């Protein structure tokens, strides 16, 4: 058994006080890069509302979110993402979240972001937090373009458990190899992964997850004084 611990972090409303997927689509819409801005905003809002009700599948989200990637060249997308990081993400990275991650890194823990949001949007964000590993929903990439489809298993609900186990297996590891395994998440969608770690931590939890955490005796951690546009 390894002597180091495993620390897994959801991203949206967990390390960030916002939803990076929603904010990316909104950024493209308000900068005129998502076709009809009003239509894009309505679609974005509808997807968020369905997610909050637990009625959204990864495939339904991908049709819109990954379609935004497929509509543009990687060169354009990369330049726009740099603007997005500077304008939206970095100003939202708060000290308590940065300190939480830094504490695990300093302890020598194996750290990864585990998020349903696609890897194009989230890879630079994980790097900005100093987290070396990312398990995200992968956008299919063929012949120099994004296709608008998902590659492999989405990192969503029970898919997060599968993806984490696959990632560990590639390193000849398993969850049982760690004396302690942490998962920080705000969402009831992440209950499957919260249930398989030794230290489930409901972080800035939605009302539903807060109730579940209290019922099950899970730790509750509130990193942010107030949260707007909260995912449940």
From TrEMBL:
SUPFAM superfamilies: HAD-like (SSF56784)
Keywords: Hydrolase, Magnesium, Metal-binding
InterPro entries: HAD-like_SerB (IPR050582), HAD-like_sf (IPR036412), HAD_hydro_SerB1 (IPR006385), HAD_sf (IPR023214)
GO MF annotation list: histidinol-phosphatase activity; metal ion binding
EC number, as in UniProt: 3.1.3.15
The reaction(s) this protein catalyses: L-histidinol phosphate + H2O = L-histidinol + phosphate
Pathway assignment: Amino-acid biosynthesis; L-histidine biosynthesis; L-histidine from 5-phospho-alpha-D-ribose 1-diphosphate: step 8/9
Primary enzyme class: hydrolase
Summary of the function given for this chain in its UniProt record: Catalyzes the dephosphorylation of histidinol-phosphate to histidinol, the direct precursor of histidine.
UniProt similarity note: Belongs to the HAD-like hydrolase superfamily. SerB family.
Descriptive protein name: Histidinol-phosphatase
Species of origin: Bordetella pseudohinzii
Gene coding for it: serB_1
